[in-house]
Amino acid sequence: MLSFMIDGLEPSLAGPLVERTEERLRKGSWHVWVSDGMDAYGEALKGRHCVLKIYPRTGKRGRPRRDKLVACPELHYAQVVKERDERHRVIGVFKRSPYGDIPLHKITTVYIERHNLTLRHENRRLTRKTIAFSKKVEGLWDQLFLYQGYYNFIRLHRGLKRRIRVGNPTMQKWQQRTPALAAKLTDHVWSLKEFMTKRIFIND
What we know:
Blueprint: H1 10-23, E1 32-35, H2 39-48, E2 50-53, E3 68-71, E4 76-84, E5 90-99, H3 110-122, H4 137-153, E6 157-164, E7 173-177, H5 179-182, H6 192-197
Parallel strand pairs: 1-4
Antiparallel strand pairs: 2-3, 4-5, 6-7
Helix pairs in contact: 1-2
């Protein structure tokens, strides 16, 4: 869980969310970005990774063509768009790649959809149609910051377990890992007590 944002409208949080996510990615690496049909994410990525394309003057009369900002060639962004009928039922799903040439099998939102399900399932404040909502936005920020640390350092992720070697080659043993352990941010699985009492020193 790299980052999150809280806002009333999705287009207004796309830019800050992309910026905060890129701050936590490895510098110089180009990843495949995938979202739903909301164009705000593509515009936010294009605004951060664009080049100025200059059109030459043709010599013809009339106003010359204006310079245009185009996406950087290294940017890879795709969308999974759902078509709905007048009753908002899904009648079709198609994929498209506005920026970059991305294989179709890499264009999927299944991982973020599953993460959103886990997020709602384990956070009562995010459950739909409930009265357990946050009365103030500051309380929701505190709750999600706490859950982000729990998810990354304490909660075991089944998809990240790793097979380790044992003395008997016929036996299989698996190491349970957290996202922080898999990303080599730590060397062990944290306990809740360790997480709540950890003192972090940041040098400015």
